[in-house]
Amino acid sequence: MQFSIIYSVDVPDDVDVTEFAPPSVEELWDQTEDDDQYEYGYLEGRWENGLHRKWCAILDREQFDEFVDRCGLFAEDVETMGSLGAPGFGFGWAPAISFRSDDPDAIQSAYVTPLPERHGCDERDWERVRGAVLAVYG
């Protein structure tokens, strides 16, 4: 199984944003946003002039496990509206599972769409895959 990922991280100005970069960022990931898209300037103190990055990738299971471990992410059992422009889906919409972290020095989120090896996934199939991801990574 592969995983299509959109990963976003925001940090305060006294934290190095690369501390929260995914592993093998140069080889596997495309950076799609930088500090120009920082949206937490309304927060006071150290968050006022923070830093932002967004990366996208398609990872295999081993790479995905390394990413989740490195970034301290876990799956949330919440409904999402999905991902727009997820890697492997062009400009279309794809269902997604939300991942986040509780690190006090970063606001991290990832939208993850598992890509089953068999094509043609209906809603029942999606719920089974979603349940399996939540059981392993939740």
In short:
This protein has helices at residues 25-28, 61-71, 123-137; strands spanning 2-11, 30-33, 51-60, 74-75, 83-84, 93-94, 97-100, 107-115. The chain is elongated. It is α+β, with helices and mostly antiparallel strands and 138 residues long.
Explain this structure.
The two termini are 18 Å apart. The strands form two sheets. The chain has a six-stranded antiparallel beta sheet. A two-stranded antiparallel ribbon has the order 5-6. The mean pLDDT is 88. Strand 7 and strand 8 form a beta hairpin. The relative contact order is 0.24. The chain is α+β, with helices and mostly antiparallel strands and 138 residues long. The protein is built from three helices and eight strands, in the order βαββαβββββα.
